[in-house]
Amino acid sequence: MPTKTAGQSAKKLVSVQRNAAHHWVGDGFPVRTLLTYAELGARISPFLLLDHAGPMEFPPTQKRLGVGEHPHRGFETVTIIYAGEVEHRDSGGGGGCIGPGDVQWMTAASGVVHEELHGRNFARHGGMLEMVQLWVNLPAKDKMSPPHYQSITSDRIPTVHLAGGHGSVRVIAGEFGGHAGPARTFTPVHVWDLRLASEQSFDLAVPDGYPVALVVLKGSVRVNGCETIGAAEVGLFDRAGGHLCIDSAHDATALLLCGEPIDEPIVGSGPFVMNTAEEIRQAQADYQSGKMGHLPSRG
After folding, report:
1. In whole angstroms, what is the distance from residue 169 CA to residue 176 CA?
2. Beta carbons within 8 Å of 33's beta carbon, 6+ residues apart
3. How far is it, in rounded angstroms, from Cα 276 to Cα 15?
4. What is the CA radius of gyration of the chain?
5. What does the pLDDT look like over 158-213, one tens digit per residue?
6. What's the first-to-final CA gap in the chain, in angstroms?
7. What is the rounded average pLDDT for all residues in the chain?
8. Engineering a disulfide at 101: which of 72, 154, 174, 250 sits with its beta carbon 3.0 to 4.6 angstroms away?
9. Backbone torsions φ then ψ of 228, nearest 5 degrees
């Protein structure tokens, strides 16, 4: 875990990103896009995009709601479930159903075709759906690596309780408090699932030299004595500094994202994120010719 040392300053809050607009991904995921590389690029590297789906109540149905077969190349998708269930299948043979507290980490890399649907049991009974999907960039040397799938159940994710009773941190990727997250990553990345509730200020140690995004999904967090980050808002912090100064937190569920920046060109088109326009054209051609595979028929 990164530790705060004498002389290190707090990271400065650069901006707070807000997006009240919803849109649908397929017919099963009402999302707000809170981060996107098209606007923020290097400021959120190595991350590319973050969608917050829900929370929304779905009635019972026999339909397979979600988003059907579609491709990806050049990055990884990370899906974190807070409520409900999501089933995943991909052309590399990966798949499964994840529920509250679970995470799926899919490395698309050289190319994969997948689908994401509401879990059958969840659809049958209906209920609340809430999830986050994060896109993590890959460096150029790894963009054409073989696809890979990690299913990370909640019981594998260590929880670290903060001193002073300020809350807890689930370590999905990277390290915190001497505990390593189960996700295997190509570059150094920290993904921490936070529950914070405190009327007193405290410091959260983060790596110097890494940009930090604090994604607040529920409640609010006041930082650096200057601004409150509310629900469905993201605080973006400068690279310099070895800790975040949390002034107070009110029943907050949040994600803290930071990683070693990938300072390479970003060229994207829809489900593909590469380094050049020519690589994007090749990805489109490879998908259309079937080189990324197809999903088998449902049994």
Report:
1. 8
2. 19, 23, 49, 50, 51
3. 29
4. 19
5. 999 999 999 999 999 999 999 999 999 999 999 999 999 999 999 999 999 999 99
6. 45
7. 95
8. 154
9. -100, 130
